Amino acid sequence: MREWTIPATKEAVAAVMHSLEREMEANECSEKKRRQLNIALEELMVNIVNYAYGEEHGIIRISYEFWKTEGGVCLKLICADHGKSYNPLKKKEPDVSLLAEKRKAGGLGIFMMKKLVDSIEYERVGGENQITIIKQMRS
Description:
By secondary structure, this protein is an alpha+beta fold. It has three helices and five strands; from the N terminus they run βααββαββ.
């Protein structure tokens, strides 16, 4: 499993996203699947940057691995932080049947993340928030 530990900043997130994009290309992941994962991962990491640490400076640990299956190539990615305990998957899903101006602000990014990946789980382990994402990247 490859791992990066980066400062919880938008600049560091952008650098990781760029590196992961190259890894996905090297593993011949489809462009559509790469875009979907990029949207989900960016949403997750920007939420950590903006909310996990408050005024403090923190870190984000990203671990990932690709593996071949009978059906293609899958990616498992774990995004972790030592910020305040928060399970975004428990957030109530927005009512997307309402017009945008009638909906409450927030929650749409998490909703979108859930739709773009095959599996997403949260756990708090040793003072660390861990989100695990699994996505079929190539059929």
